[in-house]
Amino acid sequence: MKHKSSSGRGRFAQRAAKADSKPYGRRQDAREGKKAEPQHRGDKRPARHGDKAATGGYEGRRFAGGDRKAQQASHNTKTKPARSVRPEPRHEARREEPRRVEGNLIWGLHAVRAAWLNPARRCHRLWLTEAGRTSMEQTMADGREALLKRPDAKLVDRQELDRLTPPGTVHQGIVMEANALHEPMLSELIAGDTPPDALLMLDQVTDPHNVGAILRSAAAFGAGGVIMTERNAPGTTGVLAKTASGALEHVPQVHVVNLARAMDELQQAGYWCVGLAEEGERDLAELDLTGRTVLVMGAEGDGLRQLTRKKCDELARLPTGGEIGSLNVSNAAAVALYEWKRQKTRK
Q1: Which of 74, 121, 158, 194 has the least CB density, counted as fewest CB within 10 Å?
Q2: Rounded to two decimals, what is the model's pTM?
Q3: How is domain 104-178 classified at the architecture level of CATH?
């Protein structure tokens, strides 16, 4: 009995100690009749039964000599595989952001050459590759001979010019920064004793490549200017200047608020407005274009707007045939200007 009693007290003591170690079991103050204080989420709770620190586990034990590494190694019955170290990702060399250049950029040999030799242009900077410098050598010499105030050229690599210009630009190793040209008012353009014999008017032609090509044709055939609306027309950008191939320096551009009112002003000044349209009753060659003429061109697809048609003195067509009955607007402008020039020279 004595042995059992002793053994029972031992087991009871172990159970009591075990219960006291549980955070959610019976507490000593509860056995004594005291109300247990509620535990809040932020309170520091006692360690749960089985926690290594509370039961003298891995963290609580110390081996002789205090060698923690030996302690941890003794409990790792299975060696964990070493964590694979991820290699640092390789970052490709980032392309620098394009520089923001104040003023207008012009690129390409013919566009820059014409601007360089135009006294009305204020040129600020010129960037050249080795090949570009060779191409511009004679032009720069001509500028010095004409006593034009021009900057020294800066020799750069092609990548630098690629950063200066829009993606995909064919700059030919030549880029220049210059002020925009003065743009005359319509009244200025047609004033004086010798107003232009021929003008082009574009009704919502927005593609800079088309407008640049039209300017080039206008310069080639001797037209005195191109009239466009302030809205729904391309800006005078490097793309337009490159396509115009130098014509930007020779053919004035005029932007007006309203084409119909501009046509009224032109007709009062003695101009005959001829609109090109597929439904024109006569071919363009049948008209007399020897007087002051405005050739009015519409956008591809939409053509001339209704009010623009009404304001024209006559609608004419180009004698096209075959499967495709229409031309690109820049090609149509070139054909119309050729017919005007042909009649003008035969007069």
Answers
A1: 194
A2: 0.69
A3: 2-Layer Sandwich (3.30)
